[in-house]
Design a protein that fits this description.
Elements lengths: L15 H6 L4 E4 L4 E4 L3 H21 L2 H4 L5 E6 L2 H4 L5 E2 L2 E2 L4 E5 L4 E6 L3 H21 L4 H12 L2 E3 L4 E4 L4 H9 L5 H6 L5 H4 L1 H21 L1 H15 L4 H9 L2 H14 L5 E4 L13 E2 L2 H14 L3 H14 L4 H13 L3 H12 L5 H21 L7 H14 L4 H14 L3 H14 L4 H13 L3 H14 L3 H25 L26 E13 L2 E8 L3 E6 L6 E4 L11 E13 L2 H4 L5 E8 L8
Parallel strand pairs: 2-3, 3-7, 14-17, 15-17
Antiparallel strand pairs: 1-2, 1-11, 4-5, 6-7, 8-9, 9-10, 12-13, 12-16, 13-14, 16-17
Helix pairs in contact: 5-6, 6-10, 7-10, 10-11, 11-12, 14-15, 14-16, 15-16, 16-17, 16-18, 17-18, 18-19, 18-20, 19-20, 20-21, 21-22, 22-23, 22-24, 23-24
Length: 619
């Protein structure tokens, strides 16, 4: 599924197989991370110590729920810049100068570090890992709070060999910038969203980061009263409160807070939290190391390539590897994930089926189930035969849920499968509810839940989820999808409300033969729109019906023309659908597409076209 954090997303082309073969790759496991590197074992253990220390210290200052995540994290420890460079993003053809990056996905996180520039790399990683932890549990942080929290924790330092730690150490670059620049009005800072230029453009973004850090620093350490209010504010956001309204309700008059904040900045005296421990904080030590063979190391690095943007290179490496080692199930699973994340569920199925043959591999069960579900969703939208058993996927996902009962990805995917099956809608809703509760920061899951609520006609609750997603989701794709689902929800709610209203007696327009037309009754999962059929587009073996309503233009797909039920209530005229332009007043009944399919321009799968009698007005 989509990424949470997307840092350094492009990867330079590399001859990965040769690079792996020429390096010795070591793997270590600690309680919370897996480390893979071509650096020395001593350096890898040093990075493991720092990351576990950072996580341990956060566990002492943040609520337990923040640290409670089942998403695994793999840390790649590169020995130098040359080793990391093939994985850096490029700008104008050159690798960007960066010492490390973080890439977060719904099923796993990836971290990369150049150990030769460890301090710079760790600052980047601390920043982004703090993002992940807080977003994973808070759900709806506005940009200033999101970046402020990450900036506050990124300068973490351990002291006295792990007997103490410093949090909130000022960022020298931010201090220099704040001395030289005019302060942004607080009202403007609070109003910036994820689409604002100040959040997305070069120097303006840097200023935004600096002032967000400074405000968070003041709220955390500048005033006990404000620190208490900050806790209330973050709790309000976790309860899905509107960021602006919650801020005003908790902090009161923004102008008063702005005066306090400016006074704090003018002093340029920033306190630091020092935590002293009765026992040395060493983090959970890494266990014994193992040297990876070429098959395993290539699989790890191909996954890193694929998840950071260079899908073609990763695919080529994995295909070559599997040609030589068809028994390499981890490589098959990685190639399946690559195809699944690239939107190629059909290609993914064969590879994931290999990995899912091991029923103890819960992750593979989930991935294979997800591929089947996505194939079913597409088949449902275009009317084709999925060629697979949804019940088999439901069984695999149910087994995975038994192995991982509190894993949000597993529950969300099983919820999607149950929704498609339609046999137990209460179960589908309960699974999606639990997935969102476990990972409220996952915007994908909240969108799935909202779609299910619309299907079950719980429009008010769906609106409570869709409004915030449409307004300030971090992902632009999620924002657009939420807007489409919200439009659909509002339309269906309006249609149902009109249908339930008492109708005044009116003379009906008789159909052919003089009788009142007996229109087709839509099923629960179907939507009926009144409009004009403008065209039936038949190209490249696909059929798309274009229907213009008073409110929108609908594009409805069909596998075949004769697969769409055609009914005419006019005494003469067409007896079946035909390719080409049209101008018929119709009821168009269809099954709505999910947000992913709608993003391709298809609003639903056509079920029936009913040509209305001349002069008929739909109520």
């Amino acid at each position: 599924m989509r990424t949470l954090v997307w840092v350094c997303v492009a990867i330079a082309v590399m001859s990965g197989q040769r690079a792996v073969a020429e390096s010795r790759w070591t793997r270590l496991r600690s309680e919370h991370f897996v480390f893979v590197g071509d650096a020395s074992e001593r350096n890898i253990r040093d990075v493991a110590l720092h990351l576990e220390q950072f996580r341990d210290v956060l566990s002492r200052v943040l609520p337990p729920s923040v640290l409670a995540t089942t998403i695994p994290t793999t840390v790649f420890v590169f020995k130098n810049d040359a080793s990391l460079s093939p994985y850096k993003s490029k700008f104008e053809g050159r690798p960007v100068s960066v010492a490390g990056f973080f890439s977060g996905w719904t099923d796993r996180n990836l971290i990369a570090i150049n150990v030769a520039a460890e301090q710079s790399a760790l600052r980047v990683v601390f920043h982004e890992y703090a993002h992940f932890l807080v977003q994973n549990t808070s759900g709806r942080l506005p940009p200033w709070a999101n970046e402020g929290v990450a900036g506050f924790y990124e300068t973490f330092q351990d002291r006295s060999g792990g007997k103490s730690a410093l949090i909130g150490v000022p960022n020298d670059d931010y201090l220099t910038l704040l001395k030289l620049r005019e302060f942004m009005p607080l009202s403007k800072l609070l109003a910036i969203d994820y689409t604002s230029p100040e959040y997305n453009e070069g120097e303006r973004r840097t200023v935004f980061y600096a002032e967000s850090w400074a405000l968070m620093h003041y709220l955390q350490l500048g005033s006990r009263v404000r620190a208490s209010q900050l806790s209330q504010y973050l709790a309000g956001l976790r309860d899905n409160g509107d960021p602006q309204e919650t801020f005003t309700a908790v902090f009161g008059d923004v102008s008063v807070l702005e005066r306090e904040f400016r006074d704090y900045l003018r002093k340029f005296s920033f306190p630091v939290i020092r935590l002293d421990f009765s026992e040395k904080v060493v983090g959970t030590g890494a266990g014994a190391s193992d040297v990876l063979d070429d098959v395993t190391s290539t699989t790890y690095l191909a996954d890193l390539l694929a998840r950071t943007g260079h899908v073609d290179e990763a695919r080529a490496q994995l295909q070559k590897l599997l040609d030589a080692h068809p028994e390499a199930t981890a490589a098959a699973e990685t190639l399946g994930v690559l195809e699944l994340n690239a939107g190629h569920a059909d290609r993914a199925l064969a590879w994931l089926e290999r990995a899912a043959a091991d029923r103890s591999n819960a992750g593979a069960q989930v991935l294979w189930g997800r591929a089947v579900v996505e194939r079913y969703e597409r088949a449902s939208n275009d009317g084709s035969d999925p060629g697979l058993s949804l019940n088999d996927a439901r069984g695999a996902l149910a087994r995975a849920a038994e192995l991982r009962p509190d894993d949000a990805e597993t529950l969300a995917t099983l919820g999607r499968a149950e929704s498609i099956a339609g046999e137990d809608v209460a179960k589908a809703l309960a699974l999606l509810d639990k997935a969102v509760a476990l990972a409220p920061g996952q915007e994908d899951y909240r969108l799935m839940l909202a779609e299910e609520l619309v299907r079950q006609r719980q429009f008010a609750r769906a609106s409570e989820i869709l409004g915030p997603l449409a307004a300030d989701a971090r992902s632009p794709e999620i924002r657009e999808a939420a807007k489409r689902v919200m439009t659909r929800s509002e339309r269906r709610a309006s249609e149902l409300a009109r249908a339930s209203e008492p109708q005044a007696p009116r003379e009906s327009v008789p159909a052919a033969g003089g009788s009142r037309p007996l229109f087709r009754i839509p099923r629960r999962d179907e939507t009926r729109a009144t409009g004009t059929l403008k065209a039936v587009e038949c190209e490249n073996g696909t059929v798309v019906l274009r229907v213009e309503t008073d409110d929108e233009s609908l594009r409805l797909s069909a596998a075949r023309l004769d697969g769409v039920q055609f009914i005419s209530y006019q005494p003469s005229g067409a007896k079946s659908l035909a390719c080409g332009p049209s101008d018929l007043r119709v009821f168009a009944t269809y099954v709505e597409s999910d947000a992913v399919i709608q993003a391709t321009g298809i609003d639903g799968r056509a079920i029936a076209i009913e040509v209305l009698p001349a002069g008929y007005e739909a109520r």
